């Protein structure tokens, strides 16, 4: 039985599918896109970030940063203000508070050596008693703390955090939101809100 769909229509359907696949590949938000947005959020307002500079700071390639920015802009986490890339702090904060734990949930593992995160890292590490539990850590052979493995938001996050203390603290707060007890999440949200609403002038 001959198909009722003509060749032209089949071509349109086929190319539409390709277009949709390409669009989804470009626009689906990825964890590294959030790291890029957080990095932009901690940069001084007067600073003009470049893709090369961002790549070096975040342990990514320039093409990876470019793709991440494109997806983050589509998700409204990043905006272009007169040629300057900036985090959209309001949208970013909303996503971090309400969406990140569902989009990018943390995965816990066994005992390992690593870098402290969540409530074991600043600024929350002085607020909560461990209760004898091993602290959450990003796995790192050179890490100075032994604790329970906690998957970083993105593959490049731990190395990027080593280069930027302020970014490190934001990532730790995000981890407390990704998987923390109610009071831990509440305090992380309060601290994250204060930091993202504070503008850096220098």
Summarize the structure.
The chain is an alpha+beta fold and 202 residues long. The chain is 52% helix and 13% strand.
Could you describe the 3D structure shown?
- With 202 residues, this protein is α+β, with helices and mostly antiparallel strands.
- It has two domains: 90 residues, Arc Repressor Mutant, subunit A (Orthogonal Bundle), CATH 1.10.10; 94 residues, no CATH class.
- The strands form two sheets. Strands 3, 4 and 5 form a three-stranded mixed sheet that branches. The protein has a two-stranded antiparallel sheet with strand order 1-2.
- Helix 2 packs across helix 4, helix 2 packs across helix 8 and helix 8 runs antiparallel to helix 9.
- The termini are far apart.
- The N terminus is likely disordered.
Please tag this protein with its features.
202 residues; alpha+beta; Arc Repressor Mutant, subunit A; 3-stranded mixed sheet; two-stranded antiparallel sheet; 9 helices; 13% strand; globular; disordered N terminus
Mean pLDDT: 87
Total helical elements = 9
Shape: globular
Order of helices and strands: HHHHEEHHEEEHHH
Low-confidence stretches: 1-5, 12-25
Helix content: 40-55%
Number of domains: 2
Binned strand content: 5-15%
Q: Characterize the main sheet.
A: 3 strands, mixed
The chain-level structural class is alpha+beta
Work out the radius of gyration: 20 Å
Distance between the termini: 72 Å
Q: How many DSSP E strands?
A: 5
């Amino acid at each position: 039985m001959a198909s009722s769909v003509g060749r032209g229509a089949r071509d349109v359907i086929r190319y539409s599918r390709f277009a949709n696949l390409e669009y989804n590949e470009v626009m689906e938000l990825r964890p590294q896109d959030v790291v890029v947005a957080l990095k932009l959020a901690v940069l001084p307002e007067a600073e003009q970030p470049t893709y090369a500079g961002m790549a070096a700071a975040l342990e990514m390639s320039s093409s990876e940063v470019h793709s991440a920015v494109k997806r983050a802009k589509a998700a409204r986490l990043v905006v272009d203000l007169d040629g300057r890339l900036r985090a959209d702090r309001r949208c970013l904060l909303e996503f971090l508070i309400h969406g990140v734990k569902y989009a990018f949930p943390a995965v816990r593992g066994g005992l390992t050596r690593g870098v402290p995160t969540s409530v074991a890292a600043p600024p929350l590490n002085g607020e909560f008693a461990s209760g004898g539990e091993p602290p959450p850590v990003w796995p790192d052979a050179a890490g100075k703390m032994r604790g329970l493995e906690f998957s970083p938001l993105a593959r490049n996050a731990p190395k990027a955090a080593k280069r930027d203390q302020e970014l490190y603290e934001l990532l730790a707060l995000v981890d407390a939101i990704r998987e923390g007890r109610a009071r831990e999440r509440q305090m992380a949200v309060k601290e994250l809100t204060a930091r993202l609403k504070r503008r850096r002038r220098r």
